[in-house]
Amino acid sequence: MSSLLTSEICVVGAGPAGLKAAISARDMGAHVTLVDSEVNLGGQLVKQTHKFFGSRGQFAGMRGIDIAKLLADEVSRDPSVDVMCESQVVGFYEDGTLAIEKDDSIQFLKPERVICAAGASERMLSFPNNDLPGVYGAGAAQTLMNVYGVKPGNRVLMIGAGNIGLIVSYQLLQAGVEVAAVLEAMPHVGGYDVHARKIQRAGIPILTSHTIKEAHGTRSVEDATVWALDSEFHPVIDSERYFEVDTICLAVGLTPLTELLWQAGCRMVYVPELGGYAPLRCENYETTHPGVFVAGDLAGIEEASSAMIEGVVAGLSAARSLGYETDGFEERLRLAKNELEALRQGPTGQKVRQGIRRLMALREVGEGI
Amino acid sequence: MTGRSTGFRTVPDAERRGKGPVVVIECFEEIPCDPCHEACNQGAILAFDDINSLPEIDFAKCNGCGRCISVCPGLAIFVVDETWKEGLAVVRIPYEFIPLPHKGQQVKGVSRDGVELCDATVVKVENTKRHDRTPVIWVEIPRALAMDVRHIRVGGTSFDRQET
Amino acid sequence: MQYILTSAFASNANSGAYGINSAMEGMGLVMDDGRIKHHPILEFKEGRKVRFTFDGKELEGYEGEPIACALHAAGVRVLKESPELKRPRGFFCAIGNCSSCLMTVDGRPNVRVCVERLREGMNVITQKGKGVLLADK
């Protein structure tokens, strides 16, 4: 067994939230250890080839891949941030020790503060033959094509017209892959209207009130049957349609990757608007386990732009709790919180606002597992 | 949710379009986004006081320069010039597919829902560093279709194919 | 990249089908080069080309890419057989989370090939069942 490593702040996950958390804590003077299971920093940013929404503070107008580079460069050249790549945090003990797996061996790190920014995983959808090779998470297909340059298939059926379904459909077209159709069980498109328009212009039908009935194939996906749904989400008799596709992508939502928080004993609550079980936390993104902070999708499913600002709030707060103080700390924290609120202000932020309200109300009454 | 009541819209009327190139912003849903305002150095795309507001344009100030086109993450900005030539208009379209068409190439003008509407001639391809891999294609089309053509289909490619 | 083309594959390609059906699998080496050659936004830096074996057949991939990517580019979609119902399983999550892509690599079972990086000479085998753990070292 290796010796116990120490650190002031350990940030778990180097996606948009984790990178911003590391940078913000470092800005306050704290020493940060940033741990990520991938080779490259950036989390899911490394495959986001589209230009981002938001405002200048969150790099609006820049492509996700370029934001990843910018933030990764910033932490990589900073001596007060130790970067551990290809290192997966596999355990979080109650005394605050993290077990980190790298090259088939386990290291133990006991930081004074932890910022958990592990992100999210894609949801599965139930339908016959959903386990056939060729049924992929939409984000997984995106990784295959945009990170590794491998086509997920030749002809794709996309399930889900939220932002991920729409964006990945567009990116499949850019990679030279056909998209047969995008299905959406709801009667309306869930993602941004402008994303939907991009693929509609390219001739891709978006079938609302439709879902997949069944995938077919002997060894991998060969085709799929879809059907219409009525206003109560029951299948409409005789509405079956048939699509010859070799790939089915599921873009039916994300759920926070909270295993480490459960292990640590953070109180968790089920908040559907935030994607499932989410940690109870205060306004500074500290969980019920003192010294454990959260940011990004793991704290509740949202956009990368808000994940970055949550990272700022968590990073500043964690460093502050260690006694670091800089001029303008209060102002920076206040601005970040204002920015978060502004991003969530519009109609597209309604679900998240509702989720956070629910989370805070549950916290008030001392709920949680 | 919009905090403003200037009355400015995102789509210019026929009178303004008759005066020369002008921006058309097909952004009809309130999402948190404001780079178009930052890109405009004519002061035509008004400042956002709520980042979720729809853009508002002072069409009297817009000179149709098109700096905003490739900046829009939603690829929702076009510039329309109905005064291009007798009976012909030019629409400038953001286009992120390959192969890129070249000047003089014949392509198809495509509607918002992916239907081929007309033949179109590429009269210019803007693709500098500033466009950041969102080239802007100028296509010449029948003037009557200036407010309908919003995409192009370039021949000889399996990309971006129309489904039937 | 060099792949052996067969008429069975060619007819598959023409009909728009991708990947492998059972007939193709029986024939061994699969060869659809599923790599993206040109992209409007991205440039793919290809690493060093390495050889590895998949169920006894030699394939090529790029060093350092996940094993699943190299297999997928070569048209291999079936990565394991489920333990109970013996159903084919493939790539799914790409983040090492779902266990749909467990294969036996260099004698080690249950390797998550969506995150395990390809190295020269690896011996990759479609895993059937739960795999046999090597004795603790």
What does this structure look like?
The complex is a heterotrimer of chains A (369), B (164) and C (137). Chain A is built from nine helices and 19 strands. By secondary structure, chain A is of the alpha/beta class. Chain A folds into two domains: 229 residues, FAD/NAD(P)-binding domain, CATH 3.50.50; 127 residues, FAD/NAD(P)-binding domain (3-Layer(bba) Sandwich). In chain A, strands 1, 2, 3, 4, 5, 6 and 19 form a seven-stranded mixed sheet that branches. Chain A has a five-stranded parallel sheet with strand order 8-15-9-10-11. In chain A, strand 12 and strand 13 form a beta hairpin. Chain B is mostly beta strands and 164 residues long. Chain B has one domain. Chain B has a seven-stranded antiparallel sheet with strand order 1-2-3-6-5-4-7, with no helix packed on it. The relative contact order of chain C is 0.17. Chain C has a single domain, classed as Ubiquitin-like (UB roll). Chain C is globular, with a radius of gyration of 15 Å. Chain C contains three helices and eight strands; from the N terminus they run H-H-E-E-H-E-E-E-E-E-E. Chain C is of the alpha/beta class and 137 residues long. Chains A and C meet through strand 8 and helix 3 of A and helix 3 and strand 4 of C.
Characteristic key phrases:
heterotrimer, A: 369 residues, alpha/beta, FAD/NAD(P)-binding domain, seven-stranded mixed sheet, 30% helix, globular, C: 137 residues, Ubiquitin-like (UB roll), five-stranded mixed sheet, three-stranded mixed sheet, 3 helices, disordered N terminus
Topology:
The complex is a heterotrimer of chains A (369), B (164) and C (137).
Chain A (H helix, E strand, L loop, with lengths): L3 E9 L3 H12 L4 E4 L28 H13 L4 E4 L3 E5 L5 E5 L2 E12 L3 E3 L12 E3 H9 L8 E5 L3 H12 L3 E7 L8 H9 L4 E3 L1 E7 L6 E6 L12 E3 L3 E4 L3 E3 L2 H6 L3 E4 L4 E4 L12 E3 L9 H18 L7 H15 L6 H15 L5
Parallel strand pairs in A: 1-2, 1-6, 2-3, 6-19, 8-15, 9-10, 9-15, 10-11
Antiparallel strand pairs in A: 4-5, 5-6, 7-16, 12-13, 13-14, 17-18
Helix pairs in contact in A: 1-2, 1-7, 3-4, 4-5, 7-8
Chain B lengths: L13 H4 L4 E4 L9 H5 L37 E9 L2 E7 L11 E5 L5 E11 L9 E7 L8 E3 L11
Chain C lengths: L6 H8 L7 H5 L22 E6 L2 E6 L4 H7 L6 E2 L6 E2 L12 E4 L2 E5 L10 E3 L1 E2 L9
Structural class of chain B: mainly beta
CATH class of the largest domain in chain A: Alpha Beta
* SSE succession of chain A: EHEHEEEEEEHEHEHEEEEEEHEEEHHH
| Backbone CA Rg of chain A | 21 Å
Strand content of chain B: 25-35%
